Amino acid sequence: MLTRRRFLGTAAALAGISGCSSVLPEPDVAAPGFGTGATGTVKVWCRAATQTGLTSLVEKFNASQDRLRVELTPVLDAQYVTKLATAIRGRGVPDLVDIDDINSMLFIYRDAFTDLTEALQALDFRAKLSPGHLRLATRSGRAYGVPYLADNSMFWFNTELCDRADVDPDQAVTSYDELLAAARRLRKLGDDIYAWSFPANSPGALGFVVQPMVWAADTDLIRGEVGQQEGNIVGNDVVQRMLELHRQLWVDGLVPRANFSDDASRWGSDFRAGAVGIFPSNYSVVVSGSDEAFHAKVTPRLLSGPDGGSAFFDGGDNMCIPRGAENASGAWEFVRFALDLPQQSDLPAGGYTPVRSDVATPEFAKKFPLATLPLERIEEGYAPTTLSYNLLYNQPDGPWLQMFRRAVFDGELEAAMSEAQESYDRILAQGQA
Amino acid sequence: MPRLKNVFYVVGGLGALLVFAVPLLWALFRSVQPNDVIVAAPDRATFFQLTWDNFRTLIEGPGNLLRAVGNSLVVALSTAVLTALLATLAGYGFAKFRFRSGPVLFALVVVSMMIPFQAILTPLYLQLNVMRLTDSLFGLVLFYTTVNLPFGVFVMRNSFSSVPAELEDSAHVDGCGTLRMIASVLRPLITPGAATVALYAFLAAWTEFLGALTFLTKDELYTLPVALVNVQAGAYGEVNFGSLVAGSVIAMIPCVVLYVGLQRFYVTGLASGAVKG
After folding, report:
1. What is the pLDDT of residue A16?
2. What is the assigned CATH class of domain A40-151+315-382?
3. In terms of residue numbers, what domain contains B72?
4. Total domain count for chain B?
5. Interface ipTM > 0.85
């Protein structure tokens, strides 16, 4: 008999079940005509940090045809994951998300994005796309996103200071010892000239510029595949030497004291003022906000390892189509436009670098000489594939920043590393549970 | 002796003036400096190079701050009016009508002040989504009004409680109805309370960030706090201090105007809420 209580119970259970199924229907990318001749509006989210570039891209796209209209919504970087997760939970997703590539994995592993493998194969420049970005969008051989823009970390040398201190950038990046020797010579130039500068109180920026100095030696602070990952810190000689190098830079006074509390809110102001010789950072921080005369004075090199080798952080944006997108076809059309050569070649104007290696033509190099290096060596870009990146590297109380500060400022290297190993293991285990 | 007192008064007053005025003036001054000058160590050569560039970027750039100011004004003014209206009616009911569940209901309203909305953000989002009130300034107004109502009802109930019953009795004798009573007889007495509620709701809605960020996903609907953070924040925590300080100057204008305009009501209203409750 259907009592009131039973009726309410069943209704609640049904509501619970439908509420739990957060996997939205996947758009049919194999349908004939997908990505051509779409109409209507395309809702696109982008990061607030890349808003300027995306805005002009959208304006260009909207002006290029009159079938589709892209509506762009910038979302604050720190809130992007939460906001997108809430939108998926509320089943009201945008048609395309331009998302920090390091975060795309989070959604791919929760079946929130559309499989774009075949659509991607159909692009004739597929082989030219940044492999580091693509790795962050790939799960079990299937691609769930497309690289759009790159944000790479590199060493930036102030050549004027280097000349005065007799430092050869090419020689400096051959080993940590050479880097340290170069730093010591640079510091001798004067009391207000520093050799180096690192944002030691900004977990994200620090991870962005320092981790590649470990990857350059073909190792990482994390080991294993997603699902069985653990920390790779205790016993990792490269991590230890990286920390020792930074400890030495600090102890010898080769970096500004302000590095201790540098939260990257004024990142690069010391370098742009010409007071720093070697500055690990990205294109945007160095080039935006400084003038042509300064651009002529700097030269980039890839970040290097303890005994040579090189790497850079493959940061930037991937474009992904969330499941449940209403206009996936229009979204793909916009993606193709965004990846087209004219648009890609224009990215440095907004502070970012392209994700297609074939953009690096002589004309491009002439126009943006400081943006070509990562394109020429696109294979050396890397970023860890893990579901716990934010917890490990972007939180102020995360183990990465704790380890770095304890080792560099307090000199407790071994304790810092074993503490970090424990936290890495725990966070990685929780993230995979 | 009185002279010494005067000296203390003037010195103390000037000190207080400096404490309050200097940060404002400093913000105004910084807002017309370029970002690179703001973040660099002060240098005589560049320190007084003033420019409107920060304001120009905010207004003409992709952030479109003027539109955000418009959205915020619509939301904050609507919230203020709606909150003041509802709180006045509810406050009158709680103060003047005797009914059995009255104290319990009032306690419930006041208790709800203790739950920060941040704690129930996801359910709130889902609820608003089902009612198709996300991506809508109207939905945001309803949300802000709900959050501000408990405090408003509390203040208005106390405002009405402090009105002597004789006044109403004599109005009743003259044949005055409830609404007329509030609008004509009690209005002058409760204006401070209503102004407090309105001002409080306005400021809360004007500065609120998290709710607006969560419930709105359309660029053209963003309110000022969301637009401002979007404009000045970089990927690694870089802050464009030029945009930040210029945006803050724009954001404080309505607050200062309203506060100065309603100040005398505000102070009286707060006192009536606190002491006579």
Report:
1. 43
2. alpha beta
3. 63-232
4. 1
5. no
